[in-house]
């Protein structure tokens, strides 16, 4: 079976060109404040990519990197950034260390400056609009660009986080898909993936999905990222599944660029007061 690549890089580059034109018309240069705690290698990759994308469209970035810190300190920092009129958007790079209360930190970001869409209040917005966090939004846009129909499809999502799995499930349901959510506690993953028309995985486990997990003609969206030495891996064994699927995203070059383009678009939409 001949497969097609879902080229997120190509689509995102076109999108960034449009955003760059829009930003040139703004009176004030947008500034994105990025908060990063620890030394997670995958997080470092994403931050570098986000900074490069921001630079490409003339958005300034302000990195706040802490090797170690605590919840109280991050809340104070976010409150300062909320009150800083020069800061357009605020994003916290996930995951955060276990000693930090993630929900308290994310909920502190003002609704207007939460360009990553991770404030718990945004779940209500997902229900009533097409808005969602950057990765789910990027995935939905990728499928749309390739005119892949979602209605009546069985969709298996391997991730149940507030960042990807839960909002993506809501967005898929709004498109009339039948959704199954799996995660690291799911028994016999193959039972769920084998019946799926669309598999979306974001577990960060290399080779989690191979040909035995996939039915013929399935569509695979690989949003997993794991850096081992100097190489980046997704969740899917590409060589194993490529002759069985109809569409598949590469890693890198698939979901990642779409996530970043969605973030940049959200920054460009913030009304600077």
Annotation field: number of helices? 10
CATH class of the largest domain: Alpha Beta
Structural class: alpha/beta
Largest sheet: 6 strands, parallel
Instruction: Spell out the helices and strands N to C.
Output: EHEHEHEHHHEHEHEEEEHEH
Q: Quote the distance from N terminus to C terminus.
A: 54 Å
What's the shape? globular
| Beta-strand residue percentage | 15-25%
What is the CATH T-level topology of the largest domain?
Rossmann fold
Helix content: 25-40%
Low-confidence stretches: none
Please count the beta strands (DSSP E, at least 2 residues each).
Answer: 11
Please list the strands of the largest sheet in the order they lie side by side: 1-11-8-7-5-6
**Residue-averaged pLDDT, rounded?**
92
Query: What number of structural domains do the residues give?
Result: 2
Name the CATH homologous superfamily of the largest domain.
Answer: NAD(P)-binding Rossmann-like Domain
Rg (CA only): 18 Å
In the CATH classification, which architecture of the largest domain applies?
3-Layer(aba) Sandwich
């Amino acid at each position: 079976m001949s497969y097609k690549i879902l080229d997120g890089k190509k689509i995102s580059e076109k999108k960034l060109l449009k955003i760059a034109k829009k930003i040139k018309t703004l009176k004030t240069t947008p500034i994105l404040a990025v908060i990063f705690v620890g030394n997670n290698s995958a997080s470092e990759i994403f931050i570098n990519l986000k900074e490069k994308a921001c630079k490409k469209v003339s958005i300034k970035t302000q990195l706040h990197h802490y090797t170690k810190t605590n919840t109280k300190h991050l809340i104070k920092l976010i409150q300062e950034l909320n009150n800083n009129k020069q800061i357009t958007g605020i994003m916290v790079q996930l995951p955060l260390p276990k000693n930090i209360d993630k929900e308290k930190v994310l909920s502190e970001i003002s609704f207007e400056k939460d360009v990553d869409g991770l404030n718990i209040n945004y779940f209500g917005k997902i229900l009533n609009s097409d808005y969602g966090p950057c990765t789910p939004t990027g995935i939905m846009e990728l499928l749309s660009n390739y005119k892949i129909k979602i209605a009546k499809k069985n969709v298996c999502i391997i991730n149940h986080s507030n960042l990807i799995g839960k909002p993506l499930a809501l967005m898929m349901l709004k498109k009339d898909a039948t959704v199954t959510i799996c995660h690291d506690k799911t028994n016999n993953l193959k039972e769920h993936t084998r019946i799926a028309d669309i598999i979306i995985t974001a577990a960060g486990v290399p080779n989690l999905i191979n040909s035995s997990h996939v039915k013929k003609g399935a569509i695979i969206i690989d949003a997993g990222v794991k850096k081992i030495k100097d190489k980046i891996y997704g969740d899917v064994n590409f060589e194993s599944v490529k002759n069985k699927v109809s569409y598949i995203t590469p890693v890198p070059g698939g979901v990642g660029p779409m996530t970043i383009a969605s973030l940049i678009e959200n920054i460009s939409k913030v009304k600077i007061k």
